[in-house]
Amino acid sequence: MKLYYDPASTVCRPILLFLADHDLPVEPMIVDLATRENRGDWYLAVNPNGTVPALVDGGFRLTESATILRYLADLAGSRAYPAEHRARAKVDEALDWFNTGFYRDHGYGLVYPQILPHYATLAEPPLLAFHGERAAARLAVLDRDMIGANRFVAGNEISLADYFGAALVTMGEMIGYDLAPYPNVRRWLATMVARPGWAEANAAFYGWRSALRAAA
Predict the structure, then answer these.
(1) Is 30 exposed, middle or buried (0-12, 13-18, 19+ CB in 10 A)?
(2) In terms of pTM, does the model score above 0.70?
(3) What's the fold here for domain 2-76?
(4) Is the dihedral of CA 150, 15, 77, 25 positive or negative?
(5) What average pLDDT does this structure show over 33-56?
(6) In the chain, at which end, N or C, are there fewer CB atoms within 10 A of the end residue's CB?
């Protein structure tokens, strides 16, 4: 089983952290987005979308991060993707919440335009203000209604939603996003960052963050 990924990618980091917590026979295959290796013919043969991650298990292929997480969790028999149908539905709901509206506003609307040259045309002040307001509203929902008094997003046990969501929320560190108004989010992230595999799974992300800060 091969995982094609860029270690700094927001949507690859959740998979790396999950794999750090689970013993699965996955061969790492790095795809360098910075050099546009993902647009090369060899990789387009793996994933015609030209995006990462991609998972190839024999003749079976998956190309969406959240779906890859679900597949790996089922292979591992992980409690992070519960078997009970209502508990699983709540995890799926949270995964979809992060991967749709939250990622659209916090990631594509607010963070990426400020750090990625090919999104620079979206860095107009009115657009950043619009997405900034929406991202703040979504973080308030995460803080108050999703985490609340729980340890994790979908309850008191870690789930796939935590692996995925922690990567999306921490991408705000690239622009110095202030999470002070969200104490439950900060408490939850502290729990995630304390996991044994966090530092290694996020090493490339922290390297990128340091480079951005040095260039500022």
Answers:
(1) middle
(2) yes
(3) Glutaredoxin (3.40.30)
(4) negative
(5) 97
(6) C
